[in-house]
Structure formats: structure tokens, C-alpha cells
Write a structure and sequence with these properties.
The chain has about 675 residues and is an alpha/beta fold. It contains 22 helices and 28 strands. Helix 7 crosses helix 9 and helix 18 crosses helix 21. The radius of gyration is 29 Å and the shape is globular.
Length: about 675
């Protein structure tokens, strides 16, 4: 293979692509399917000119129709990707290194790098050697037998059934069941009639859902809506009142319901427009009673309603036990809630409670209070010590980050930091991006930045050729696309504290401009935000903590929808709200109390955060924690000190504040030898 030509199948391919892209000026990708478009998106981050070459008349022709493909093409063009359709590549030009592509129509395309992502090719060589009928793959009948020899069975990506070749795992499970029924003679009437495929994904930043066929046939009914300027396209194909195909692009809010109706072959409402838009009435939802026994609940692992019922009948009466036994919900995880509903239905509403759901981490069989008590009583200060003492020496990778965070919050500067227990973000103090680079966000209390700091940020961005400089929702500046080995130098030259924007920490405190300039200001929100940031920065937490201070009830800094929000109401008074949310979950915070000074606001806010740190589940945001514990109890504990915990909570928070440090100082004193070493660079060396 010529130098500069890459496949797109494994980690070695990816490492080679990244290394070459840093030197490339013009890259080409053969294949306009999902893999090819994702490769193109990755290449864009390295500032080379990107061209996508596709054989079909439109992009993603397996999932989209022509109008949807045209909208996707337009969206990609806006991102700077050049599209070449109906191009059959006949030759890779160049002697030792790729210099371009030649096409069947006689045209050429210059490039100094090529990624081949033209989809799967069935490995049907064994069929050819055996003299079996092979077209795109080994041709099989409805019983998964070769059409030439009834004693030869084939399943998976190497087979062609009714003209189709599947490159996904779900059809393999369906085919395997038919094969197993025949080979064991359990059910000689079992037949495979093809798979109903559906997928939901994001391509080049565009939300997309696709299911079934893309074009109507015969007397099929179809409903179509297009708004190309906004990148929105919706199309449904209905046959005999059932959904047989659909495409949603841009707005996929109806995807969950439609995919459910598609997979279950459920009858659709007569009002077809309601399938695409909310018309003020709730969606029709199929019940567990109505679900056919052979309907798949878990498409990833091919688990049907009947299989779940058989598992329950065999004595597994907890959702976890059923999932472990059948592998349902162990793939993408999107069906977990449905699996739980089906198990509950088969158990007659009497599901047994699995004690492990109360464990703080899966690898240590203790609740959080029990775990904290054991850590203190047995003086366990490292993750490895916890596994050795409390888990019989068995380490569980999924439990490590939560244990590391908990140990840090309990022992503070006595915590024995084992970096392999931390997620990559926490090891290098930056948020990892999809291309393996990191984002750098310096601290800006209340969104305030001095001119000289702003100039340093700009100088660093120019010097290190930062691909993206972005203003964040937390009123800070994000430098996106920094390679890991450049992080220490970037931090040093910025000369600003870390913004703690990468993990389960206190993040930031937003503010409006308060009383200094705003004519409506009732309190110094910028001053309070500055004090809050200086006090709580670097504090570990079960989940991220986002705060805000508002200078008046107009709430310009969105304090009412933060984990902790402070709202000035005049005469030096501040209202403290807790448990707000503004992401995928939206919730107005509950009023915890009203205080008479900034000092009291900081004290009660800190006390609540410590109570949350000690009692929340791992990754449980405050909006779930407040709902679970109850605002009345929280008020009683934090404000009234009904359980006598106030002094202990305040002392524990102060100990964490005293132990906190700026992790970006590791730029000159790394915790480990290879903390900031690039894997690719090391491999090349």
C-alpha cells in the first residue's frame, strides 16, 4: 500500500491517520457512509482540506433518501467538507506516496492523504472455495442454509438473504436462533424473514434517526416534511397502518416513539401528522400486554419478551438478575427501562429488590454510609487498599473513579492518589474530546476577566494554533483541541488557575453584573461569585456542581436553575436555591433559606454542598438528590441543624477547602512520569 493510504478499521489505523493528518494539506475519504463522514469530521480538526468521494447519488444511501442526503450534504459543505458524488475510484495515483485519485469518468482529484472507509465487504471466500453461490455474500434461504447444499448453514455478515447483507449484530442474533432451531431440530418450521433495522446517531453534528426502508413501494402511504435551510427533514412510510420506514433529521424528538412503533410493528394512529409533530395530545404507547411474545425488547443482543419471561419463570426475579442472565440491556443500554417494565410485568408487580442497587460502587458490597464508616474505621486511604480490605482483593475498574472521589473528599490531603483509579480527564486536568485532544478552561470567577489575562489567552491560542476558542455557558473561555503533550506548556503560559471544568467537581459560579453597573441590582453578585469561586474551587463531588449568583430576582445569571443559586432580594439579603437544572433535565431549584449576609450565604451554601457530598450517590446530580432526600429534611439539617450535623459539615468542608490545590501546577511537577505523554508520539519514537 502506498504511503499516506489508510484503512479505517482499528486503533492502529486511527493512530496513523492522526499522525499523517498533522502534516497533510489535502485529504480524501472514499466512502460517504457513516464511517466515511466520521473520518472526514475528524480530519477537519487538523485543518487540512477534506474531500469525501462517494459512489452513490447521495450520502448515507443505506439510511437516507435523496432529499435527506442533499440536506446532509449541504450541512457538511457549511462545515468545509467537499463532496464528490457518483464517483467510482479506479486508481490511487502516485508511486511511493499517494498524490491523488483517478475516477471512472476520467476526472482526477489531488490529495496527499487517503482514508478508505467504503463500508464492509463480506468475507465469503470460504463459500467461493466450496463452490457455493456467492453474490455480494454467501446466498442463504429462510432457514439460513446455502441455496446449494442444505447441510451448509451460514449466519452473520458473510451471508446474503433476499438480496440484503447486514453489517450489524442484531440480525446475527435473529439468524442464529433460526439456525439453532434447525440444527437441534427443536423447530424445523423456524424461518428468517429479514431484520427490521433502526438506528439513532449523530453525523457531523447532525442528529439523525433512520429505520426500515427509505422509499415507498406499491400502495405505501408516506408523510414527508422538509425545511432544508434549518437542516430538518422528516419522512415516514406506512404500510397497512404500520410503520415500515422512516427518516428523521435535525429534529428527532419523535424518534423514541417511532422506533418503538417500528420495532413492535404497532398500529399507528389515524392522525398521521401527530407522528411527526406535537399537536397537543400524548403519543399512543403500546402496553406490555399488547407486546407480542416474539417482539425484541433488546435489539443489541436479540432478547425477546418471551425470553425475559422464561428467565423470570426460571427464578430470576430482579431486573439485574434477568439482565445478567439474558444480556438484555447490556449493549447500548437504551432499553434498560423497558426491560425493567417487562420484568415487573412478568413478576406480577412483585419484583424482588436487588441489594446491589444500594451499593455506592458495584465492586464493594456496602452502601455509602457503610462504606464511609469502613474507610474511617479501617483507615483506608487508597483505592487499592479499599479493594484489598473490603472486596476480597478483587479490583473493579468501574468502581475506581467513584472510590477515588470519595476518598479525596474524606481524607483530603491524606488521600493516597493512585492515578490509574482516575478517569483520563482527572489525570490530565482537561476535558478529552472525540479526537483525543483536550480542552483548557482557565478560571474566571463570575465571568470576569482582566485585559492582560484575555491577551494571554489570545497569545496562547495563536502560538499553539488552537482549533477552537469558545465562550462557554459558564461564562469562561474554552481553548479546544490541545494535544495532551502540550497541556503543561499551555497552562504555564496562561498563568491562570484551572477552571475545574473536566470532572465531578465544583465547576464555576456564574454572575450578572450586580450593583456596580446594573440599575436593577440589589446585591453584589460579581463580588459574591468571586468569593464563592475562591473558596470552593477544586472541591471533589459525586457529580459536577454548577453555581450562580444573581443580583436581583430577574435571574439574568440563571441562579434558579443551578445546583446552588444565590439571588439578592435587597437590604443585604440573599435567597439560596438548591437542586436546579437546565440541561436535558430542566428544574427550578427549591428555596432552601433566606440569609442576611454574603458570609451566611457562603456558609449555608457550603454546608449544603458538604451534606450532598457525604450523602449523594455517585453521579447523582443535586436535582435528583434534593428530590430523593426531600427539601423539608434538607432545610431541617442545613438551616435548623435538627440532627446536630452543622458543625461537623462545616468542619469537613473547611478541611477540603484547606487541602484543595491548583492541579495545573502539575505542569512543572507531574504526578507520574508519562502523565502528559502522547501515546502516538511514544509509539513513533
Amino acid at each position: 500500500m502506498k504511503s499516506g493510504v489508510f484503512g479505517f478499521r482499528n486503533i492502529d489505523d486511527c493512530n496513523g491517520i492522526v499522525a499523517r493528518a498533522q502534516q497533510s494539506s489535502r485529504a480524501a475519504v472514499i466512502g460517504g457512509g457513516l464511517l466515511g463522514l466520521e473520518a472526514a469530521r475528524g480530519l477537519l480538526t487538523y485543518h487540512c482540506e477534506v474531500h469525501v468521494v462517494h459512489l452513490a447519488k447521495h450520502l448515507m444511501d443505506m439510511q437516507l433518501d435523496a432529499p435527506a442526503g442533499a440536506i446532509l450534504e449541504s450541512s457538511m459543505a457549511k462545515l468545509g467538507v467537499n463532496i464528490h458524488l457518483e464517483k467510482a475510484t479506479t486508481e490511487i495515483l502516485g508511486d511511493d506516496c499517494v498524490t491523488g485519485l483517478a475516477f471512472k469518468d476520467g476526472s482526477t482529484l489531488d490529495c496527499d492523504m487517503l482514508v478508505i472507509a467504503a463500508g464492509i465487504r463480506p468475507n465469503a471466500e470460504i463459500g467461493l472455495r466450496a463452490g457455493l453461490t456467492v453474490e455480494r455474500a454467501i446466498v442463504v434461504d429462510n432457514q439460513m442454509r446455502s441455496v446449494d447444499d442444505a447441510n451448509v448453514y451460514a449466519v452473520g455478515e458473510c451471508v446474503q438473504h433476499r438480496g440484503r447483507v447486514y453489517g450489524l449484530v442484531a440480525p446475527l442474533w435473529e439468524q442464529s436462533k433460526v439456525f439453532a432451531d434447525h440444527i437441534t431440530q427443536r423447530n424445523l418450521d423456524a424461518a428468517y424473514h429479514g431484520s427490521r433495522l433502526a438506528t439513532k446517531l449523530k453525523v457531523m453534528g447532525v442528529e439523525l434517526a433512520s429505520m426500515g426502508i427509505t422509499e415507498p413501494i406499491g400502495g405505501d402511504e408516506f408523510i414527508q416534511f422538509a425545511e432544508p435551510k434549518k437542516g430538518t427533514y422528516k419522512k415516514l412510510i406506512v404500510r397497512d397502518g404500520h410503520l415500515v420506514g422512516g427518516i428523521l433529521m435535525g429534529d428527532i424528538s419523535k424518534a423514541a416513539y417511532l422506533m418503538q412503533a417500528f420495532h413492535r410493528d404497532a398500529p399507528l394512529p389515524e392522525e398521521r401528522l401527530s407522528l411527526l409533530f406535537d399537536l397537543g395530545s400524548p403519543n399512543q404507547k403500546i402496553t406490555i400486554d399488547e407486546m407480542p411474545a416474539n417482539m425484541q425488547v433488546c435489539n443489541c443482543n436479540g432478547v425477546t419478551k418471551a425470553a425475559l419471561g422464561a428467565c423470570v419463570a426460571a427464578g430470576n426475579r430482579t431486573t439485574k438478575a434477568v439482565m445478567d442472565a439474558t444480556r438484555a440491556g447490556k449493549g447500548c443500554g437504551s432499553c434498560k427501562n423497558l426491560v425493567a417494565e417487562v420484568v415487573l410485568w412478568f413478576c406480577g408487580g412483585e419484583v424482588e429488590e436487588d441489594p446491589s442497587i444500594h451499593y455506592y460502587v458495584p465492586g464493594v458490597p456496602l452502601t455509602k454510609p457503610q462504606l464511609i464508616a469502613a474507610l474511617r474505621e479501617q483507615n483506608l486511604k487508597s483505592v487499592s487498599a479499599v479493594f484489598k480490605t473490603l472486596a476480597g482483593g478483587t479490583e473493579d475498574a468501574a468502581s475506581k473513579p467513584a472510590l477515588a472521589s470519595l476518598l479525596a473528599s474524606i481524607w483530603n490531603d491524606e488521600y493516597e492518589d493512585e492515578r490509574d483509579a482516575r478517569f483520563i480527564n482527572d489525570r490530565v486536568h482537561g476535558n478529552i474530546q472525540k479526537d483525543g485532544t483536550f480542552s483548557v478552561i482557565p478560571e474566571m470567577p463570575g465571568g470576569v476577566c482582566k485585559p492582560d489575562e484575555l491577551m494571554r489567552i489570545a497569545e496562547v491560542a495563536v502560538k499553539y494554533k488552537v482549533p477552537l476558542v469558545k465562550l462557554t455557558g459558564g461564562q469562561r473561555i474554552d481553548l479546544v483541541g490541545i494535544p495532551k503533550d502540550q497541556l503543561p506548556a499551555v497552562w504555564s503560559e496562561l498563568g491562570m488557575p484551572a477552571g475545574s471544568a473536566w470532572g465531578k467537581w465544583y465547576r464555576t459560579c456564574k454572575s450578572c453584573i450586580g450593583t456596580d453597573y446594573c440599575r436593577f441590582g440589589l446585591g453584589d453578585s460579581m463580588g459574591l461569585a468571586y468569593k464563592i469561586e475562591r473558596r470552593f474551587r477544586g472541591i471533589d463531588s459525586p457529580a459536577k456542581l454548577k453555581l450562580a449568583a444573581a443580583g436581583c430576582p430577574r435571574n439574568c445569571s440563571e441562579a434558579l436553575i443551578k445546583d446552588v443559586g444565590f439571588v439578592a432580594i435587597g437590604e443585604g439579603k440573599w435567597e439560596i436555591y438548591i437542586g436546579g437544572a437546565s440541561g436535558s433535565h430542566v428544574r427550578k431549584g427549591d428555596l432552601m433559606c433566606t440569609v442576611d449576609s454574603e458570609e451566611a450565604a457562603i456558609a449555608y451554601g457550603g454546608r449544603f454542598m458538604q451534606f450532598y457530598r457525604e450523602n449523594a450517590k455517585w453521579r447523582e446530580r443535586t436535582y435528583d438528590f434534593v428530590t430523593r432526600v426531600g427539601i423539608e429534611r434538607i432545610r431541617a439539617v442545613i438551616v435548623d441543624d435538627s440532627e446536630g450535623l452543622g458543625a461537623a459539615l462545616d468542619a469537613a468542608m473547611q478541611a477540603s477547602v484547606d487541602a484543595a490545590y491548583d492541579p495545573w501546577k502539575e505542569a512543572t511537577a507531574p504526578k507520574t512520569v508519562n502523565q502528559f505523554t502522547s501515546i502516538i508520539a511514544a509509539a513513533e519514537a
